[in-house]
């Protein structure tokens, strides 16, 4: 809109189509996903731009959005030490700097903060920017390649962003947390330990049983007898004769 003042200030809105799946930045017109996780296909949106003049004028167009589930694995997170409100206003400039320093077509997919409270979000100096890159052949650049390039060009990226934000900027690529052990693997380990303990107990039982069978007399006769060669009133020990060498 070539007008100036309120007549040239545009506000964007979604007025039709699958609006539950998307949202729009009313000031920039940037469309972003809301609940398309796990979905793929074509989505249709009716977008309206309206100026803020006394006689409000509007225009509408249809936007077709193709969601490719394969793209999710190539999204790279960049953490900036800037307030989310500032990053949102400068998103186009952030995208331009990344394209210049990385040499790819870069798209900013989402901008968010870990803080859920709106007031906390505005005061937290840490904002996460999700980006995806495409090469000259319009093919997605693998996430690992994008991360490596961001680390190699970190100084240049931060210098470019410093000019955008007019303040020192830190742009970091967070390291992925170590993957937790899969439930199946944990269950297999526990089962293995239980089987090993059972086998050891069974082996101990077999060895004890063999020992008892090998020395039955010593176990049955000697048990509970202090002097097996003493005379017993009930004559139950008459079969036990004193050895010959004991008579000497």
TrEMBL record:
GO terms for molecular function: beta-catenin binding; cadherin binding; calcium ion binding. Residues 230-248 have a biased composition (Basic and acidic residues). PROSITE patterns: CADHERIN_2. GO terms for biological process: cell migration; homophilic cell adhesion via plasma membrane adhesion molecules. This is CAD87 protein. Residues 1-77 form the Cadherin domain. PANTHER family: CADHERIN-23, PROTOCADHERIN-15 ISOFORM X1. The gene is Cad87a. It is found in: Membrane. InterPro entries: Cadherin, Cadherin-like_dom, Cadherin-like_sf. One of its GO terms (cellular component) is catenin complex. It comes from the Eukaryota. Pfam families: Cadherin. The keyword Ribonucleoprotein does not apply. Residues 224-248 are annotated as: Disordered. Keywords: Calcium, Membrane, Repeat, Transmembrane, Transmembrane helix. The chain crosses the membrane at residues 187-208.
